[in-house]
Amino acid sequence: MSGAEEKALSEFSADADKWFAENTPGDPGFMLPLSFLEVSTDQQFEFLCNWQRKVWEAGYLGAAWPSEYGGGGLPQEFQDAATKAMRRHGGPVFLNAIGLGWAGPLLLEMGTQEQKSQYLKNILSAEDIWCQGFSEPDNGSDLGNAQLKAERDGDSYVLNGSKIWTTLGNYAKHMILLARTGSDAPSKYAGLSFFLSPMTVDGVETRPIRKVTGEFGFTQTFFTDARIPADCLMGEEGQGWLIAMRTLEYERGARGGQAGGYVLTPFDAFSILDLAKNSTRGGKPVLDDPVIRDRLVDFIIEGQSLGLCDQRGRIAPLNQDRPAGLSLSNKLMWTEFVRRLCEFAITLTGEKGGYYVGEENAVEDGLWTRAYLNSFGATIGGGTSEIQRNIVAEHVLGLPKK
Amino acid sequence: MDHLGRIGFSEEQADLLEVAENFCRERSPMEKVRTLLEDDAGYDTAVWEEIAKLGWLGIAIPEEFGGAGLSLAEAVPVIEAMGRYLLAGPFIPTTLAAQLLCDGGSDAQKAAWLQKIAGGAIATLALSEPDGRWDDTEIAATAVKNADGYRLSGVKTFVGDAAQAEIILVSVKLDDAPALMLVEKSALPETALRRETIIDETRRSYELTLDGVTAPASALMDQDRAAMALERLRLAATLLGTAEMVGGNRAVIDYTIDYLTTRKQFGKTIGSYQALKHPTVDAYTMFEQARSHLYAAAHCFNEQGTGEIATRMAKAQAEKSLSYAADRAIQFHGGFGFTYECDAHLYRRRAIWHASQFGDAAWQKEKLAALLF
Hints:
The structure holds two protein chains of two kinds. In chain A, 42% of the residues lie in helices and 15% in strands. Chain A has eleven helices and ten strands. In chain A, the strands form three sheets. In chain A, strands 1-4-5-8 form a four-stranded mixed beta sheet. In chain A, strands 2-3-7-6 form a four-stranded antiparallel beta sheet, with no helix packed on it. Chain A has a two-stranded antiparallel ribbon with strand order 9-10. In chain A, α1 packs parallel to α3 (76-88), α8 (290-312) runs antiparallel to α9 and α9 runs antiparallel to α10. The termini of chain A are far apart. By secondary structure, chain B is an alpha+beta fold. Chain B has three domains: 2-121, Butyryl-Coa Dehydrogenase, subunit A, domain 1; 124-222, Butyryl-CoA Dehydrogenase, subunit A, domain 2 (Beta Barrel); 227-372, Butyryl-CoA Dehydrogenase, subunit A, domain 3, CATH 1.20.140. Chain B has helices spanning 11-27, 30-37, 45-54, 72-84, 91-104, 107-118, 226-260, 274-300, 306-332, 334-337, 344-356, 361-372; strands at residues 123-126, 142-145, 149-153, 155-160, 167-174, 177-184, 193-195, 205-209, 213-216, 264-265, 268-269. In chain B, strands 1, 2, 3, 5, 6 and 9 form a six-stranded mixed beta sheet that branches. In chain B, β10 (264-265) and β11 form a beta hairpin. In chain B, α7 runs antiparallel to α8 and α9 (306-332) packs antiparallel against α11 (344-356). The longest helix of chain B has 35 residues, at 226-260. Chain A binds chain B through residues 268, 270, 273, 276-277, 287, 290, 293-294, 296-298, 300-309, 311-312, 315, 317-318, 321, 325-326, 329, 332-333, 386, 389-390, 392-393, 396-402, and chain B through 1, 4-7, 9, 14, 17-18, 250, 253, 257, 260-261, 268-269, 271-272, 274, 277-278, 280-282, 284-285, 288-293, 295-296, 313, 316-317, 362, 365-366, 368-369, 372-373.
């Protein structure tokens, strides 16, 4: 980076810090979701849409996307600085996660000119919410076995079947959809195609699913003779698996290009240090307990590990043995860390760990019990930790599939 | 969380890492490691001379004393490579002794010894005592001034490579304050050293009995700096031990993967079983974390506060990670893993060794808790 660019970056960074200091909303008076995965009410939905749009209008979301599609046209470092400022001031999550993080970069990488013009700006502004139709009731981890049918009929495809765990399914305007176009393809993978599918056509119905936290946020989505334009197909018939795998790389953070910000409330080990300092357990300050101290330091070390691994991932000579290792392990390491961290946080609260959201005596409104239960969304969604271990074993360590 | 450490990697580190990896792979194949286990000195003097010629012993010695004038951060990739190939030799004790001399030696001692060390003279440390303390708040060994110099007494343990060393830097109490004495090996009676039987058979360690040992007046290092120098030294030892563990950690994971991808049972390559696959991935991600901590600790080592935090974190993570990977390596090799012939135990033993020296993970975390909370 040149001296002028560095100066521009540091100015941008200072402006962003000031902007988030002034514009990060306080308590809205109702419970906000911890992540994009549990937007349960219209009130939450509208609040988060407004927030996302406001940040985008200020230039701190999509800063590194091309300016002709609503982005800022700046180098990635600028968006990283804006995201850092947002985190520093504890801004609410962005809800259009699938658009910003997965569909968006995918469109930028392999979408047509028309598709980019049609979709990208509205992803940034939260005008169009996106959802994902990958998993099915009978095919979760075995994604390649997806059965939802897309049959070509003139200028349309006709969709029949069902998708599940459709986050924001009831609010979304578009879905990235993995469907079966060829039943006599040479392999289960070759029969799959990828669609940018409208949710607003006849024959698409969503049914909310209540999740482990008690909140809503995703749906089962039913397709009954739903007719979508044929140009919703991305790439060509039979390329669905390839495109879906690329989407998952974006989803898992193994590949960059996301619009920025965060979609899950960031937890680091220091977020529980204050909790620990103020907690008693069995009537005694928890930090007097050497076992708790030892475990808390373990979490701080591990949290620090993850940040350092991000930094080391950018230093090629320190990644020569297994160049893809850190990026492919990223999702596994982070999500499992957050799950265990939240679980530990509950134990810090001692007897009050028995309270839940809505109880006035609960510590931080029951944040930690909710966060722990919610953390499974990330260790299961986007490919379970067990699938992630298979991926790392096979693609990084070279262990055999069979 | 920059105050806990950040990663930086200098060109010198990158060059040294590459050169050291190639050197150690060639000079320390496993047959050689195995042969040296049975050797009295435990290392190959010809390889040691090559190491001296490469300038690695002078990496962190100032240029005015014949060194390269770099820092311990540049010694880290070299030691990581040595750890990876289990290259034996007194590199760590000698490097640490040089640091202790730089920090706490008299001008005359520095002038007399640093250049020699950079050229291959072996030096070591005698800090530990039978009570097993991991800090220097109490030192039982004493030095008493007499007409000719000092009369020493007490017992030191875990003195690395003492039989080969030309000088031994010994911590003692002098006039009730910590002090360091530079003792020339040639001044020791023959019975002063007893070889200890230690868990890591790639190294040599000795018990040193100081009773009856005398040292000239010039042996006393700068006593005003002794406490500070010892504290820095223990942290430096923690960093270098961590580098060796991280190197071994890489190796033991590769060694395990080799077996998992070749051994067949029930008609299948055993690496296809998730019961073996998933813990191997866990070992791998823990290793990657340890390696990140190592290079953050190396980069930040000289920063007040951050250096100590980063180094203690790195040691705790590396000990946990290497112990787990090597423990699983023994188990995953099945019956062969239970034999002396399988290499897995060499790494497991090494992790136990490093845990025992300069504070194990639990001890590091106790220190960290005091620093962080």
